[in-house]
Design goal:
The complex is a heterotetramer of chains A (345), B (302), C (365) and D (512).
Chain B: E1 13-18, H1 24-40, E2 43-48, H2 53-66, E3 70-73, H3 82-90, E4 95-98, E5 112-115, H4 118-131, E6 140-146, H5 152-165, E7 171-178, H6 183-197, E8 203-206, H7 209-221, E9 231-236, H8 239-246, E10 252-255, H9 261-273, E11 280-282, E12 287-289, H10 290-296
Parallel strand pairs in B: 1-2, 1-3, 3-4, 4-5, 5-11, 6-7, 6-8, 8-9, 9-10
Antiparallel strand pairs in B: 10-12
Chain C: H1 2-11, H2 17-24, H3 28-44, E1 52-54, E2 57-59, H4 61-84, H5 92-107, E3 113-114, E4 117-118, H6 126-150, H7 155-174, E5 178-180, H8 187-191, E6 193-194, E7 197-198, H9 199-217, H10 220-229, H11 231-236, H12 241-267, E8 269-271, H13 279-289, H14 301-321, H15 328-343, H16 345-363
Antiparallel strand pairs in C: 1-2, 3-4, 5-8, 6-7
Chain D: H1 6-9, E1 13-24, E2 27-38, E3 41-47, H2 53-60, E4 68-73, E5 76-78, H3 83-89, E6 91-94, H4 106-111, H5 126-139, E7 142-143, H6 155-168, E8 173-177, H7 185-200, E9 204-208, H8 212-218, E10 221-226, E11 229-235, H9 241-249, H10 261-266, E12 275-283, E13 291-296, E14 300-305, H11 311-318, E15 326-331, H12 341-346, E16 349-352, H13 356-360, H14 367-379, H15 387-400, H16 417-430, E17 435-439, H17 447-462, E18 466-470, H18 474-480, E19 483-488, E20 491-497, H19 502-510
Parallel strand pairs in D: 3-9, 3-10, 6-8, 8-9, 14-18, 14-19, 16-17, 17-18
Antiparallel strand pairs in D: 1-2, 1-4, 4-5, 10-11, 12-13, 12-15, 19-20
The chains are: A mainly alpha (345), B alpha/beta (302), C mainly alpha (365), D alpha/beta (512).
The complex binds adenosine-5'-triphosphate (2 copies) and magnesium ion (MG) (2 copies).
One magnesium ion binds at residues 53-54, 96, 177, 416-417 of chain D.
Chain lengths: 345, 302, 365, 512
């Protein structure tokens, strides 16, 4: 009776998850599916458009989406913890405006401005996190308020766009990391890659990262398991604020300007990238690598449309939707058929 | 031109990055460019940025990657173009700006700018008002319906308008609020103004026709007569504005011409032929007061 | 468990039972927020609350707020139900634009003036126009619902597809123009008055009444709350969770469609690009302000109506206090934070604690 | 009344609670309760459903604030405000409902909050996490892939993981709230071995269960709660079975209902009754191997087997919760098998699922709404039951199953665990099905109520309902079923007809 009960490793999908995927509940991160679709889409692009499969096109994907990458990493943590952060785009804009105004109009040193705006981002995140944690307010509303506030402050500081001519910024903006073969990466892309790497490490290998997953899975259980739900949650928003500010800095390198209308609608794109990357909006499941793939997929869709070059404005929108649909459907199909295979083996 | 590039059939390739399709004006602008390219036999690579600068930049990048002959674009914003224009310059691709200017430190980054001067448009509106107000010394109270906060036309038109009115203390802008360039926005803001200021308002200055049309509806619903009780001044000169003027509800519209296509194609051809171009190609624009509306209406294309 | 603590904090208010019951009513705090906003307006701007009788109807800021909020109220009602089953619909703005575009296109035509007076011309009869636009909207909802339930996509992504493509579709219908509508009978929907009050209000009232009945007099309310509370348990219990969910997405889109009719009728035009822009955010905000949690299960239709009114009052307030446009957002942010904090149990608890401590300190010699 | 055994009096008091009181709204869940846990003893906490056991435990661990009362740990007054604080003080707890994160792997659930780290970078040392987790599970006699998400394992395993986690915390007081409710005998035995080992090491263990034999098997002392008050504390050996039950329920328990030949004859469940449902080769690839099973009118069919033997899986196939991909499943005269629960309910099937928290209750809905939910689903949305009718049905079942609730409008989430289970059961009884599938329906239900429910099921069978009864307790199966089908390794290995005894069933389960 007392012998070890040998239990077969499970070969079937979790019961009750097949065919009812739409019911909120744990599901497998469709990471591999995302990658498959990314590859398939690139191949399709290469077949359709000459010059599409050149290395620089793919590096441009990174260069052009560097800000999004950085912001989406922060957003991933927020969503993994079961929250949402709508303030990221506005915070990016605020960062660029503050940086530009301080550097250009007040002549501050960039080395002072950059830490300052990062601190500003963290502070902003902590402020929202505290409101959410201490007063039990829904993250959606708090961060929406944060979005109004950040965007509004940016307007108040400067309605006009401010060009940055400061030499350090210009030097960083022009700096390229040569990768051989005539292709190169911008500073922003390098920062984005580092952020993704750091995010992956943070999510996978630190107690904080795992606590974020635990809270997203079941807040009550995490609390009873003795995790510091409150402090983790505040830190998650602080992290997102930090990433937004970092994204803002990357954007100043990318555009060499500060403008209150920068990064309009970025919050939604970031959320979409995170969710497309396989993270559950309800929290607890997903990965930073998935988010990275999600950003690349959104960027690739954009690139495909640019390469086509024949779409009118409204067909562009429809094509965006259709590609998004095709991608998401493909992803679901792959996930499902893998589940099916699993139960066969 | 260099031999290595160009379209498959040797035609000139023009990469054009449009802001979006946020207004009728913009739609007319796009249509003009497309048809002019077609007529001029130019291979047009068109990309719509959905009102996002980031999309425009990545479109320009991909034009560079595709090695088009000329790049043209209507900048969403004035600043932020320096890095990508430098890349274009490094790739020896000439750049033409349409509609709006950009703010760059190196003037060689673009060849020419074809477009209107928003500040001047604002001034024109103010001048018309100065000329067409009955003499007297009673105050003229103006409310201003601004465009999207931070957008270049909103900033510049406001600037020009206020600049031209500066020496005339009789003219006071008593309220100013953003109507986001839309009819619904214009109407809603105007409703609030009417309730807050009542019959005090003499003039409405709207940064575009759509907001003016919205404001006209609000004025009518308040039981006042737009065009008479309250003068309405607007900008752009789209068809709707002419209809309103013919109905006697809008006093004047300052044209902002979106039909830049032919001029753009001429410029592209000139660049390909190596001819010099002026730094600034101004578009013909006039002021259409109410009285001239009926005559001009049949010729309007947008 | 965290909840329990909060509940006890709220429970030990040392006030009379009646007052406590009032305070505990879920609609009390949103209603108070709305009242304070209006009262504040009335204080700073004495004319704000004034009502007059003009041209055969009531005229004033309050009527404007109600009229302007009508589309948002409708969409919030739909959104409430979608959120109640743990969904989300961010395509409502695009659906509104589609419905408006379809209606404007079906009316079609240009300004026709005969003998100096404008004549009303339309391509299709008005009833058909309305049905057509609503059908288009419902089809959008069906699409959303099928993506969520059938394909199993996450609601935000499933509806993002239509949010992106929808405006393109609407622009396709309008040809990228702002379609002006000249057909006067159509204006009644969004501009007309019945018994001196805007007709749109009657639409909202009718929808609310129908919903209220459908949720109270049939088992739908029970099913919706069961699905939202525990979708798997509801499914196991035999509730047709899938069809109900699809139905709710359709209803939400239908409401966006009705809102599209109201909006296009009000401004007498269909603007595919700008109509209903950011409506999804406003609608979700309204739902949340009304006390419906985004996690599903519980919902309050009346709360969402109040939420929508709060949002519209905020906007009108900003327009009428006369701040420069670049300050709008900051004012809005401050007001949103204030309204939220007012509704937060924990915040009120903290304030009460501070207050009693302050008083205790003050009463000490 | 108070007697303490010579073995215990000498040991030091580890945790002393005095005068603990807690009200929920107007309901007094706990009144003036004292509890004394000594080091090196296993202390059983007994009481009917809703007696206040879980409430007491949550106050000991800082998960719930007490209205009044004091706590002392090793003679020092403590007042833990959060579970974290209690944990740090050395109080380790397994709560009644599994409180773990289903999305995390088993290993993470075991070690969350105290991961082993790399020395250099302070990052989590995953190989060591895995090794430690495997060791912890092995301590309970379980070998499983600790890297899989917890949600992929059945409740029983999840419960074992929760126990393993609490054992892994270095603690001086261990509290287990119904840890054995979904375990079968071998796991229970493994758990007891570990508990005895910990007792040797001087830990104080508080143990809640509704199984009397388990209480007598491990515990040294027993405290009994009734209606939120402590009614007694004694050395286990000194407390006779009947007296213990009597003090729990406040009256003598009637002799146990048993499935006797007389009973069987009295019921319609003889082999000759008309067929209600039949399975021919019903199964699913990777799930259940093809099963043949006939269920007749008025018959109670028991389904026995070990944990993971596929009983739940089979029940889900029958109810349309999972789709079968082979064989045939006929319900009455229906031409096809149900494809989803809604169809199954329409056909007159009912299934009380095993996982009460995730698939049973809707916590935010009231008792009334939870009870009528399936009946209403069967009627469709238009034929809405009038409020009065709903109330009548709900009140009837609340009385029948003796559901301890403050009122019909109380949210089910506020009920005690056992009472929640009764609500789920009531929901299905209310649909008056032709075939009722019960998957561990008596999980967490107290002795007296369990007896009532068994009697009720037998009565329903006598009235013509067919029942498929799944239970981990062999005695229960033998007592109530007319026929017992046994499963092993996801296939049906045989059937036993009454009269049969526990040994015969066990022998078949073991495969000899
Ligand atoms: N959150 C709550 N809100 C209101 N009442 C509650 C709450 N939690 C528990 N109760 C009530 O307190 C009483 C005691 O419940 P408790 O969970 O302690 O019972 P229990 O002895 O553990 O029962 P079981 O054996 O069924 O688990 C019950 O009447 C229950 O309804
Ligand atoms: N240790 C385990 N690891 C993985 N999966 C398991 C394990 N034990 C059981 N399962 C899964 O559980 C399912 C079969 O168990 P099921 O719950 O149907 O059996 P049961 O006889 O009802 O046991 P229980 O007593 O747990 O209810 C299968 O899907 C099986 O893969
Ligand atoms: Mg309990
Ligand atoms: Mg089972």
């Amino acid at each position: 009776m007392n012998a070890a009960v040998r239990l077969q490793p499970q070969t079937t999908p979790a019961r009750g998850t097949r065919r009812r995927r739409w019911l909120p509940g744990p599901q497998q991160a469709p990471m591999a599916a995302s990658v498959t679709v990314l590859v398939a889409m690139s191949v399709a692009g290469g077949l359709l458009f000459p010059g599409f499969l050149s290395p620089q096109v793919f590096l441009n994907l990174l260069v052009d989406n560097a800000v999004m990458c950085v912001v989406a990493v922060g957003m991933s943590f927020v969503i993994l913890s079961g929250g949402i952060d709508l303030s990221v785009g506005a915070l990016v804009a605020l960062t660029t405006v503050v940086s530009a105004v301080l550097v250009e109009h007040h002549g501050w040193s960039p080395w002072l401005v950059m830490p300052l705006v990062l601190a500003l981002g963290i502070g902003f995140g902590i402020f929202m996190g505290l409101l959410i944690q201490c007063f039990g307010l829904p993250p959606f509303v708090v961060t929406l308020g944060g979005m109004f506030l950040a965007r509004g402050l940016a307007y108040v500081i400067s309605v006009d766009s401010v060009s940055i001519t400061q030499p350090t910024y210009e030097a960083v903006a022009q700096w390229r990391l040569p990768l051989g073969g005539g292709v190169s990466l911008s500073a922003g892309a390098v920062i984005a890659l580092l952020t993704v790497a750091a995010g992956m490490l943070l999510a996978r290998a630190t107690a904080f990262g795992r606590a974020v997953y635990a809270i997203g899975g079941s807040e009550g259980s995490a609390y009873l398991m003795g995790l510091r739900v409150g402090s983790v949650r505040v830190r998650v928003y602080a992290l997102s604020g930090f990433c937004s500010a970092l994204g803002g800095i990357v954007l100043t390198f990318y555009m060499l300007s500060g403008y209150s209308l920068h990064a309009q609608g970025m919050e939604l794109d970031a959320i979409a990238a995170v969710v497309i990357g396989g993270t559950l909006l309800t929290g607890g499941q997903g990965s930073i690598a998935g988010t990275f793939v999600g950003v690349l997929i959104l960027g690739l869709i954009q690139t495909l449309i640019v390469f086509d070059g024949s779409l009118s404005s409204w067909w562009t929108k429809i094509a965006l939707g259709v590609l998004l649909f095709a991608f998401c459907l493909l992803q679901r199909l792959i996930v499902r058929s893998r589940d099916g295979q699993e139960s066969v083996s | 031109g260099c031999s290595g590039r160009g379209g498959h059939d040797g035609r000139t390739v023009l990469g054009f990055s449009q802001v979006g399709a946020e207004s009728e004006w913009r739609t007319a602008n796009t249509a003009s460019i497309k048809s002019a390219a077609h007529d001029a036999g130019i291979d047009l690579r068109f990309s719509d940025a959905q009102q996002k600068q980031a999309n425009q930049i990545s479109a320009i990048r991909s034009f560079i990657a595709q090695r088009v002959d000329v790049i043209a674009f209507s900048p969403v914003v004035e600043s932020g173009w320096e890095p990508v224009l430098r890349e274009a310059k490094a790739a020896h691709i000439p750049v033409v700006l349409t509609d709006r200017a950009v703010d760059v430190s190196d003037p060689s980054l673009y060849v020419t700018l074809i477009g209107s001067d928003f500040v001047e448009e604002g001034r024109k509106a103010a001048r018309w008002l100065l000329q067409n107000t009955p003499a007297g010394d009673g105050p003229v109270d103006i409310v201003e319906l601004e465009g999207t906060v931070g957008s270049a036309p909103a900033i510049d038109r406001k600037k020009g308008f206020h600049e031209a009115l500066a020496g005339h203390p009789r003219y006071q802008v008593i309220r100013s609020q953003s109507g986001d360039f839309t009819r619904a926005g214009g109407k809603e803001v105007m409703e609030a103004f009417l309730k807050a200021e009542g019959k005090r308002i003499n003039v409405v200055f709207a940064h575009n026709d759509d907001m003016a049309i919205g404001a006209i509806q609000a004025i009518e619903e308040a039981g006042l007569r737009p065009g008479r009780d309250i003068k309405v001044i607007s900008m752009d000169g789209v068809k709707g504005a002419f209809e309103a003027m013919m109905a006697g509800k809008l006093n004047v519209t300052v044209e902002c011409n979106p039909l830049l296509g032919p001029q753009l194609m001429q410029a592209v051809a000139a660049i390909k032929a190596g001819k010099p171009l002026p730094r600034r190609i101004v578009v013909e624009e006039s002021v259409y007061p109410m009285e001239s509306a009926a005559a001009a209406f049949p010729t309007r294309k947008y | 468990m965290v909840d329990e603590r909060q509940r006890t904090v709220a429970g030990d208010a040392n006030s009379s039972g009646c007052r406590r019951r009032l305070f505990a009513h879920p609609l009390f705090w949103p209603a108070l927020a709305l009242f304070l906003l209006l009262a504040g307006n009335g204080l700073f701007n004495p004319g704000f609350l004034g009502l007059q009788w003009r041209q055969g109807h009531v005229y004033g800021n309050l009527v404007d707020i109600l009229l302007r909020a009508a589309p948002l109220m409708l969409v919030s009602l739909g959104m409430t139900l979608v959120i109640a089953v743990r969904g989300l619909d961010i395509s409502v703005g695009a659906v509104l634009a589609i419905a408006a575009a379809v209606a404007a296109w079906m009316i079609g035509g240009a300004l026709v003036v005969e003998h100096g007076t404008q004549v009303a011309v339309t391509r299709f009869p008005l009833a058909l126009v309305i049905v057509g636009a609503l059908l288009a909207a419902a089809a959008c909802g069906l699409w959303n619902g099928l993506l969520v339930v059938g394909a199993g996509m996450q609601p935000i992504i499933a509806t993002l597809i239509l949010m992106v493509a929808g405006r393109g579709i609407a622009q396709l219908v309008t040809g990228g123009q702002v379609l002006t509508i000249y057909y006067t009978p159509y204006f009644f929907l969004g501009n007309g008055y019945l018994l001196g009050l805007p007709f749109a209000l009657f639409v909202v009232a009718a929808v609310y009444a129908v919903l209220h009945l459908a949720l109270r007099r049939t088992a739908l309310g029970l099913f919706v709350r069961a699905i939202g509370g525990n979708p798997r348990a509801a499914y196991v219990a035999g509730v047709k969770a899938r069809s109900i969910t699809v139905g709710l997405y359709m209803f939400c889109a239908l409401m966006a469609g009705v809102a599209g009719l109201l909006v296009s009728s009000n401004v007498k035009s269909a603007d595919a690009n700008n109509a209903g822009l950011l409506l999804e955010l406003d609608a979700i905000l309204a739902v949340t302000l009304g006390g419906t949690p985004l996690g599903g299960g519980r919902f309050s239709l009346a709360g969402s109506l109040l939420g929508a009114l709060i949002i519209q009052t905020l906007t009108t307030t900003i327009y009428s206090i006369g701040v420069p446009p670049q300050v709008n957002m900051v004012v809005k942010a401050v007001l949103v934070f204030a309204v939220m904090l007012l509704q937060s149990v924990a915040f009120r608890g903290a304030v009460r604690k501070l207050w009693t401590r302050h008083q205790a300190a003050g009463s000490r010699p | 009344m108070m007697t303490s055994g010579p073995t215990n009096a000498s040991q030091p008091v580890a945790l002393q609670a005095r005068g603990l009181t807690r009200h929920f709204g107007g309901v007094a869940a706990l009144q003036d309760v004292d509890l004394c846990l000594r080091g090196g003893e296993i202390h059983a906490l007994m009481g009917q459903n809703g007696a206040g056991k879980s409430t007491l435990i949550r106050m000991l661990t800082g998960a719930l604030a007490a209205d009044a009362g004091t706590l002392e740990l090793d003679g020092r007054a403590i007042a833990p405000a959060t579970p974290v604080e209690a944990q740090r003080l050395g109080i380790s707890t397994v709560y009644q409902e599994v409180n773990l994160c289903p999305n995390l792997s088993v290993a993470e659930n075991l070690l969350a909050g105290r991961y082993p780290r790399h020395r250099r970078w302070r990052t989590i040392d995953w190989p060591r996490v895995r090794r430690e987790a495997e060791t912890m599970m092995a301590g309970l006699g379980l070998e499983l892939d600790v890297r899989r998400p917890l949600s992929r394992y059945p409740v029983a395993i999840q419960q074992m993981v929760a126990i393993a986690r609490s054992l892994g915390l270095s603690a001086c007081v261990l509290i287990l709230d119904e840890p054995t409710s979904s375990l079968d005998e071998s796991e229970v035995e493994a758990l007891f071995t570990v508990m005895r080992g910990l007792r040797e090491r001087g830990l104080a263990i508080l143990f809640v269960t509704h199984f009397l034999d388990q209480v007598y098997a491990v515990s040294d002392r027993i405290t009994v709660l009734r209606n939120g008050r402590r009614v007694g504390e004694r050395v286990a050996a000194d407390w006779p079975h009947a007296a213990l039950v009597a003090s729990m329920i406040g009256r003598e328990l009637q002799p146990q209902f048993a499935h006797t030949a007389a009973n069987a004859a009295g019921s319609a469940g003889s082999a000759g009754g008309p067929m209600v449902a039949s399975a021919r080769g019903l199964g699913r690839r990777g799930g259940v191997e093809p099963v043949d099973l006939d269920i007749r009118r008025g018959e109670v069919v028991g389904l026995g087997g070990l944990l993971g033997s596929g009983r739940t899986e089979l029940a889900r196939l029958m109810f349309g919760l999972d789709r079968s991909d082979r064989g045939e499943w006929r319900v009455g005269t229906q031409p096809s098998a149900p494809r989803n629960p809604a169809e199954a309910v329409a056909m007159g099937l009912a299934m009380c699922p095993e996982e009460r928290k995730t698939e049973g209750i809707v916590a935010d809905l009231s008792v009334r709404e939870n009870i009528v939910l399936s009946l209403q689903a069967r009627r469709g949305w238009r034929r809405y039951l009038k409020l009065a009718q709903q109330t009548k049905i709900a009140a009837e079942f609340v009385a029948l199953l003796d559901i301890g609730t403050a009122g019909l409008e109380t949210p089910v989430g506020q009920l005690s665990g056992g009472n929640q289970q009764k609500v789920v059961l009531a929901r299905w009884l209310a649909t008056q099905p032709s075939l009722l599938i019960l998957d561990e329906p008596t999980r967490g239900i107290d002795v007296a109520a369990k007896q009532e429910i068994m009697a009720r099921i037998a009565a329903l069978a006598r009235d013509g309902m067919a029942v498929l009864f799944i239970s981990a307790e062999i005695e229960e199966l033998v007592r109530v079923a007319d026929r017992i089908a046994v499963m092993r390794d996801r296939r049906k290995v045989g059937e036993l007809a009454q009269p049969c005894d526990t040994h015969a069933v066990l022998a078949m389960i073991a495969g000899s």
